Amino acid sequence: METSERITIRLDREILARMDALLRTRTGYASRSQLCRAAMRQLLESLEGRSTRVTAEIPSSYLDFLDALIQNGYFLSREHAAQRLIEEGLSRERVKGILAHQESMGRASGKIFPVELKKDG
């Protein structure tokens, strides 16, 4: 018994051409249907707040710089660059500073700003 249902959607030719180009150059997706299923799954997880992915608009000058760093071997990919930069930007010292600021703002305003952090390991 099949667990999926068939639907019909209309897509612009430009989107189909991009999908087809992606299917020709990347492995992992055997068909347009498989690519659409994966894209829909990712979109739903993102909208439901269950995704570990974050989408951000970054100025092209920053992307050009990141791409140059990737080409020179400093980062493995854009994703790797984003992960490393976030890790460095949220060092233990920085997080302690953020929490101290939060606490002082709470005392000054009389409001509580709860932030809970998971402990490593």
Cα separation of the termini:
43 Å
Structural class by sheet pairing and helices:
mainly alpha
- In N-to-C order, the SSE pattern is HHHHH
Query: Quaternary state, please?
Result: single chain
**Can you give the mean pLDDT?**
86
Flag low-confidence runs.
none
Helical fraction: 55-70%
Question: How many DSSP-defined strands?
Answer: 0
Largest sheet: none
Question: What Rg is obtained from the alpha carbons, in whole angstroms?
Answer: 21 Å
Notes on the protein architecture:
It contains 5 helices and no strands. The protein has 121 residues and is mainly alpha-helical. It has a domain at 9-55. It is extended and about 55 Å long. The model has no long low-confidence stretch (mean pLDDT 86).
Layout of helices and strands:
Layout (H helix, E strand, L loop, with lengths): L12 H13 L6 H16 L12 H12 L6 H12 L2 H18 L12
Note the main attributes of this structure:
single chain; 121 residues; mainly alpha
